[in-house]
Amino acid sequence: MLNSSEYCKVVDNGQPSTLIVFSSAGIPQGKFSGTRAFSNPKMNYIYLNAPDNNWYIGEIPGLGKDVGAIADSLLLKCKLLGTVDLYTYGGSMGGYGAILYGSLLNAKKIFSTGVESTLGIQGGFFNIHCKSHFRSLDSKYLNLSKVISNNNSNILCLFGEFSFVDLESANVLANKNGVNVKTIRNEEHSIPPLIDYYFGVSNVAFSYFYNDDIDVMDGLFGNILDDYSMSNALYRMKCLKKDVSQELSHYGNCKSSTNLSYLLFNNSIINKRVGKLDDAFNALRKSVFINDGNYVALYNLADQYNRLRNFGLGVFYSNRSLSYVIPGFRPLYNASISLANAHLGIGDYHKAEYVLSDLDLRMTNSAKSNPHLKVRIDSISKRLSEFRFSHTS
Fold first, then answer.
1. 46 falls in which pLDDT band (50, 70, 90)?
2. How confident is the model at residue 320 (pLDDT cuts 50, 70, 90)?
3. Among 120, 129, 130, 372, which one has the highest count of C-beta atoms within 10 angstroms of its own C-beta?
4. Residue 58: exposed, middle, or buried by beta-carbon count in 10 A (0-12, 13-18, 19+)?
5. How far is residue 138's CA from residue 144's CA, in Å, rounded to a whole number?
6. 103 burial via Cβ count (<10 Å: 0-12, 13-18, 19+)
7. What is the pTM (predicted TM-score) of this model?
8. pLDDT of residue 251
9. Four-CA torsion 304, 306, 307, 308, nearest 10 degrees
10. pLDDT at 342 exceeding the cut of 90
């Protein structure tokens, strides 16, 4: 019963503690999230994956056809491993599995990131990635609030403050007993790569599991949920395509400067769409002044300065944005394009060419086929070609 399979890998290190690691969406069959990050021999491991990104509420071959059968299989494996203390971990789809089965199996502690409290929410990642037919899924487990209502496990949930659909779930889960919700400033949906880059995801997880301590991350946490009405308005704007411009214009009551910066940034986007470029520029400047960790706002401000032909500041804010690059996770291609445009504006074609060459080396194939990026890069390439031609004629 401890045999591994295409969707379940078991590592028996002869320890009293077992960690179940739930893979995130998009991991190929036979592969698993966390096999490198979580390999400390002081624990046993069960790595899981879900076919067709079924969010662990459909059949998993070799484990069971429904949630109840899968939970029974996992419980048996834990018993065979001699498990005294059980822990679960996962991000996004994996976070849902971690909370679902961690609750059902009475895990001592559960560590999740970017999890949806209710599957099927408009704009949610389940709707985007799940390839299973909805009717083949176990409808009893579409809402985590019901699952954890009688749960004795300690649950930690981390969310990025730029993922407004996630913040809808964060607000729901923050009001549940035994759930500790933390939000990370200036971050999107995917949190594990960020944690791994700065601290090592296993270091943080084990610190939480054994010591109930994630103090090393304190400097990253924000308090956007204190202004939930604001984040909800941004969710309705981003995901439901609602006009919330009137709501977002009243930003004086934010409880933190970081939250105010989010409002100003999104107000700048709204104003830019309707052609109010000066208002967009002023809101963007204020947003960056308050919160210069918003790497997206930084390269947008660089573009605004390039538009105003203040290319020196275009270079400055592009480079400031690029200082937040995390290789393989947060490439910030747009910031490089903004920098190349600023160098072109100054007339430093050689620097622009260097930035573009570096960008080409860094870009993935899928990024190179992105139409928005391609248009911007082609425009720079054309100007560089004209420069080369003029200096060889």
1. very high
2. very high
3. 130
4. buried
5. 13
6. buried
7. 0.93
8. 61
9. 90
10. yes
| Confidence band of 289 (pLDDT split at 50, 70, 90) | very high
pLDDT tens, residue by residue, 142-172:
999 888 877 788 999 999 999 999 999 999 9
For residues 96 and 23, the answer to whether their CB atoms sit within 8 Å is no
Euclidean distance between the first and the last CA atom of the chain, given in angstroms as a whole number: 75
Query: 67-94: string of b/e by CB count within 10 Å (b at 16+)?
Result: beebbebbbebbeebebeebbbbbbbbb
Give me the pLDDT at residue 392, please. Answer: 67
Look at residue 393 in the predicted model and tell me its pLDDT: 57
Task: Give the ranges where the chain is alpha helix by DSSP (H).
Answer: 67-80, 93-104, 125-129, 144-148, 164-173, 192-198, 201-211, 228-238, 245-248, 257-273, 277-290, 295-307, 311-322, 333-346, 349-362, 365-368, 371-390
Q: Are 234 and 260 in contact (CB under 8 A)?
A: no
> Does residue 249 register a pLDDT over 60?
yes
**Max CA pair span of the chain:** 78
Tokens of 334: 């747009």
| DSSP string over 370-390 | -HHHHHHHHHHHHHHHHHHHH
Element (H, E) at 184: strand 179-184
CATH topology of domain 8-222: Rossmann fold (3.40.50)
CB proximity list for 275: less than 8 A, separation 6 or greater: none
Q: Are the beta carbons of 175 and 198 closer than 8 angstroms?
A: no
Centre a 10 Å sphere on the Cβ of residue 289 and count the other Cβ atoms it contains. Answer: 12
Q: Residue 373 and residue 364: Cα distance in Å, rounded? A: 12
Q: Are 20 and 46 in contact (CB under 8 A)?
A: yes
Fold of the domain spanning 292-393: 1.25.40
Check pLDDT > 80 for residue 105.
Answer: yes
Burial of 347 (0-12, 13-18, 19+ CB in 10 A): exposed
Composition of the chain by helix, strand, coil, percent to 5: 50, 10, 35
- HSE-up (13 A, CA, CB side) for residue 389: 6
